[in-house]
Amino acid sequence: MSWNPFSRLGSGTKKPVISRTVEREFEKEVKKLEELDEVTKRLYKDGKRLVEANSALTKTERRLTQELLGTVLCQSEQDLRWQLEEWDHSLSALETQMQEVNGVLQKAVIEPIKKLNTIFPNVQAAVKRREQSLQELQKCQIKVSRYQERDRTGPNIVKLDAGKKVLVQAQNEFSSQNAALLEDMPKLHDSRVQYFQPSLEALIKSQVQYTTEALKLYGELSNTLNGQRDYSNQEYDASIQQALSEIKALSITVD
Known about the structure:
Keywords: Cell cycle, Cell division, Coiled coil, Cytoplasm, Cytoskeleton, Septation. The protein is mostly helical. The protein has a domain at 20-125 and 191-253: Up-down Bundle (Substrate Binding Domain Of Dnak, Chain:A, Domain 2), CATH 1.20.1270. The protein is 84% helix and 0% strand.
């Protein structure tokens, strides 16, 4: 169903049923809701993707520690095994935190957006009914215009009077639908900020909580593994390069 079917305002009539200004105003409001509909659909899909990405991140990290813990090296090197167990323990705690973030995403973002998406088909249907009423009004006006051009015989006068009554009914029906849409569509569009703001606030708070907990856990893990010493990136690089140089110096690794 088209959001904004083109209204043939002057097709078959001597003058438009409604003014171009009124129709442009209507089309403007419809366009804004059409864009809002598209945005909410994308947000819904992106929210679901974010939940999946969050879950994949924690599972991937846990898989890394679990695979390392299962190696022969960890079975023989107790210090390395202890470090990996501490790391895995921290990741387990973070996984729980991430589940809470995903729970907030589901309840505060995805579900509200899904509910909002169910409203737009109703608006589309109302726009379609308005278009049908406009077309009916155009037909009635054409009939009345034709009767007015005919000779004023008894039968033609009767048809003209009947046509005018039907035209008035069609005008009232269209005016009612048009006025309701022009009043309600801006209200629906303007309510978007008020509707989305609580969802965004809840999401941001959950992200802050997760990041804070991650910083705390990784900080504690770093202190535990490094014996309270704060190694710089340069020191880590130097240690890795030294170990790599010693490996390259082995006879079995010489080209």
